[in-house]
Design brief:
The chain is α+β, with helices and mostly antiparallel strands. The protein has 8 helices and 10 strands. The chain is 50% helix and 18% strand. Strands 1, 2, 5 and 8 form a 4-stranded mixed β-sheet that branches. A 4-stranded antiparallel β-sheet has the order 4-3-6-7, with no helix packed on it.
Length: 303
């Protein structure tokens, strides 16, 4: 009696078909390589076992492709074909859709995972990836680089992600060298120079006033001493010589006082123009005029 034929499990058929697809799509050249030795086959199978335990499924599948070659011993080859189907069934896949800044689909996109190239273009099919957290980069001609970090779940199939490239960046501006001063806006340089000039003029007036006031102060003291030698006081002096000496001393004292007042005004002007922004001075139309004449010094400032 001929025993009835045992039913073939549909899952087994699917696994064998997936394994065949892996061999044909991923490594046809190696699978058909008749120079693959038995030692190579054994090493590839052992390596695939270790990689599968570490859940490095993509690397494990690459080793299984090697030991599935026709030149491998039958027992090793059949085991590798079966295990290749199991690994492929567990391996997550990622489907990426890319768009440019205008919203148009892009297919010429290079995809890398942790620096390893997964695909040179997108065709709508799932990209085999490893589970865990990975950094993906997407490159397209004329587009800015896009980087994404995703956590891939174990056995997650056809995970769909969409990325959008930003508009291409314009020419990058070159920063000025260290220590270089940027050119001020139109009119700002002139206002700054005028501001500094006014401050320096004020400082010069202050210095001249101090020097002149000091000289006339010393002269007033000297003339006062001479007048006191003739008359003890200006109010009690009755001689023409004494009156003249007291008047001369008083005139020198008045000039000294005036010079110190002018010095104070010059110092005030210098402080105002030095410590206030140049833009304010330009907007207000600041101006400074200094006039010097016989026995006279005139300071005129408008702000």
């Amino acid at each position: 009696m001929i025993p009835p034929a045992r039913p073939v499990h549909r899952l087994a058929i699917v696994r064998v078909g997936m394994a065949a697809a892996v061999v044909l799509a991923q490594g046809p050249a190696r699978a058909a390589d008749a120079t693959t030795t038995a030692t190579d086959c054994i090493a590839a199978r052992n390596a695939s076992l270790d990689l599968t335990k570490r859940q490095d499924l993509r690397a494990a599948r690459a080793q299984l492709v090697i030991c599935s070659a026709d030149s491998c011993p039958d027992d090793i080859r059949q085991d590798c074909v079966k295990r290749a189907a199991d690994v492929t069934a567990q391996m997550p896949t990622l489907v990426v859709r890319a768009k440019d800044a205008a919203g148009a689909d892009l297919t010429a996109v290079k995809v890398t995972m942790d620096g390893e190239v997964l695909a040179e273009r997108l065709d709508g099919t799932g990209l085999p990836v490893d589970s865990g957290e990975h950094t993906f980069t997407f490159e397209a001609a004329g587009q800015q680089l896009v980087t994404r970090t995703w956590l891939i779940q174990h056995t997650q199939k056809e995970r769909r992600e969409e990325i959008a490239f930003a508009a291409p960046a314009g020419p990058a501006s070159v920063p000025p060298p260290a220590g270089a001063q940027q050119a001020p806006p139109d009119g700002a340089q002139g206002g700054s120079d005028a501001h500094k000039t006014a401050a320096l003029v004020g400082a010069g007036v202050a210095a001249a006033g101090i020097v002149t006031g000091t000289i006339y102060g010393v002269l007033a003291i000297s003339r006062k001493n001479d007048a006191e030698g003739v008359c003890p006081g200006s109010s009690v002096c009755a001689t023409p010589e004494g009156v003249s000496k007291w008047n001369s001393a008083q005139s020198a004292a008045n000039v000294s006082t005036l010079m110190f007042v002018v010095a104070g005004l010059g110092a005030l002007e210098a402080a105002i123009f030095w410590f206030t922004p140049s833009g304010n001075a330009t907007a207000r139309g600041t101006s400074t005029q200094v006039g010097i004449g016989p026995g006279m010094l005139q300071l005129k400032a408008i702000w």
